[in-house]
Design a protein that fits this description.
Blueprint lengths: L7 E4 L8 H12 L6 E4 L2 H12 L10 H12 L4 E3 L30 H14 L3 E3 L6
Pfam families: Glyco_transf_29
Subcellular location: Golgi apparatus membrane
Pathway: Protein modification; protein glycosylation
Length: 140
Amino acid sequence: MKVYGSSFIYMPAFSMKPGTDPSLRAYYALADSSSNLTMLFANPEFLRSVGKFWKARGIHAKRLSTGLFLVSLALGLCDEVTAYGFWPFSVGLDKQPISHHYYDNILPYKWFHAMPEEFIQLWHLHKSGTLRMRVGHCLM
């Protein structure tokens, strides 16, 4: 974990019931190490406020994506934000199939997240200079 320096780690302890136990185990494991990482747990009120904010801007989903929650958090914590991986289609610019998760190849349920709506709002923030969006292959 030392390669991440003094980064933040977001854990979904209080946003989803199944995430509570593994999040707390990760927190205690990190606390026992000599890491400079900071564990973040989203306050449920923050999650509700972010949901209301984006709903008022046209994102109507059963649940916002974790990525949009994290971009919202980053905009409040960081001077510069670059978002990567918010492509709302099942094929990339290179016409190859892509999933919406970095950790699996399962496409999200269409009724659960509103990926196209999220992408449009992030693209507006990109055009206004509030954040940078990277589409296509990651160059890092």
